[in-house]
Structure formats: structure tokens, C-alpha cells
Fold this sequence. Notes:
Layout: H1 2-34, E1 37-43, E2 46-47, E3 51-54, E4 57-59, H2 61-70, E5 76-82, H3 85-94, E6 99-104, H4 108-111, E7 115-116, E8 121-122, E9 125-130, E10 145-148, H5 153-164, E11 171-174, H6 179-188, E12 193-197, H7 198-208, E13 213-217, E14 230-235, H8 240-255, H9 258-267, H10 275-278
Parallel strand pairs: 1-5, 1-6, 10-11
Antiparallel strand pairs: 2-3, 3-4, 6-14, 7-14, 8-14, 9-12, 9-13
Amino acid sequence: MKKLTFGFVALASAVLLAACGSNEKTDKNTDSSASKEKVVFATVGTTKPFSFEADGNLTGYDIEVAKAVFEGSDKYEVEYKKTAWSSIFTGLDAGKFQMAGNNISYSDERAEKYLYSVPTASNPLVLAVNKNSGISKISDIAGKKTQVVQGTSTASMLEKYNQANADKATEINYTNEDITQMMTSVDSGKFDYKIFETQSVKKIIEEQGFQNIDIIEFDVADLGAETNPYVYFVFADGQEDLQAFVNKRIAELYADGTLEKLSNEFLGGSYLPDEADIKAK
């Protein structure tokens, strides 16, 4: 009877030790996850091919580059958040978001408030015009109608153009529509043109089967603008450590061919920045 009691106690002790070991392992995993710094990554999710939804999940060039950047990180845990364009920047201001990516270009105004990553892609602007608009070059936009989302680089560019060319002003209509809806209005002739990045314009024309849009290349200097055709991530003020981490990873992804692969997959070709511009700061 003593042997039976001893055996029972030994078995119970073994089970208890095993349970403790299991809890300890679970606790460690929980602690590891809890110890990571939370990064909320904001995006619009309607700017194909940079950010869009497929089968209910966010994807696109910006999203997949970000996923590659944070893959295997033992410091950061990322949540991807879909939001309106204007809410991206108010969210960064309020500390609601730490990082954002949505085919974001550089502007001096933004650089005064937010931190920029090194560039992730090259994406020059083009004129998408209705074939019956009479527009064949950038100077032909005088008196023609377009749509812009307030606060975008295109809106700022055209506003400055109108200020400098009051006698040749273009008609600016502000909207909250996404780029596909705006391109639909150009195809139908409701609006004469849209200035936007070449990859998105070509992708939308191809997928929507638009027949009434021509693509015209132009130099942004003709609009009195000083900008570069690069795409960036942006960070809230005070996120210098996150910025440094992302910049280092982007340089590594450039070197190992990951950016090239993602560019071909989502942008339809090699649209990478110059190597000198992508080196980590």
C-alpha cells in the first residue's frame, strides 16, 4: 500500500512539474510577444498596386515591403490599419499611428512634420487625359477640369500652379473619391484629366478596360514643382528608432533582391530608386 501511495505521489508530482513547465513556456512566449513595441501602420487600401485588398486582406507593394521589413523582428509587432487618406496624417499627429505607407511622395511641408524613410520605389507622375479633352501636353490643362484629394502632393502642385498662372488656371475639384473612381470620370469625359503616378494609372486602365484615356509623360518642372518621383514610408514625429530600423531593412531588401522581386510582382517591372538614394541613413 505504501508503494502504491508513493507511486501515486510521484506521478502527481511529475504531472504538476510538466504542467508548470508548460505554463512557464507559455508565459515566456506571452512575455516575448508583450515585450515587443507595437507599430500601427496606416494605409488607405484603395491605391492599387501600392495598397489594396485581396480576399479580404491588405496587400500591394507598400504592404508587402513593410511585411518584409518587419519579418522576424524581435523588437516590433505590426498592425496594418485601413483608414481614409486624410486620417493617415491626423492619426500620425495624434500618436494613433506610428508609420504609414500609401504611395506617399515627398513634400517639404510633410517633411517639416513627419519623418521619411529612404525611398522604396520610383513612380513618376503622368497625365491621364480623356482622348477628347484636347490635352496633348501639360500646358493644355489651362481651363480644363480635374479632381484631387485635398492634402495630396498633386493637389498642392496644382494649387501652386494656379497661383503662379492665374490667367491659365486649371479647374480644381476636390473630392474624397479613390483613384479608380476619378479615373472612371476621366474615361467618361466628366473630367478632362488626372495627374497621378504611372504604375497606378496603367494598372487601373488595364483592369477597368478604359478605352478613352491617353497617358502623357511630362516634367513636373513645367508645373513649377520641385519633387522627385519616389515612394516612401512616413513616421510620426519622435519615431527615430523605428525610422532607423526600417531604413536599414530597406537597404538590406534592396541588396538581397527582395525589392526587385516585389516591384516586378506588383508594379509590373523594375521601378527601384537609384542605389545611392536607398542606402540607409
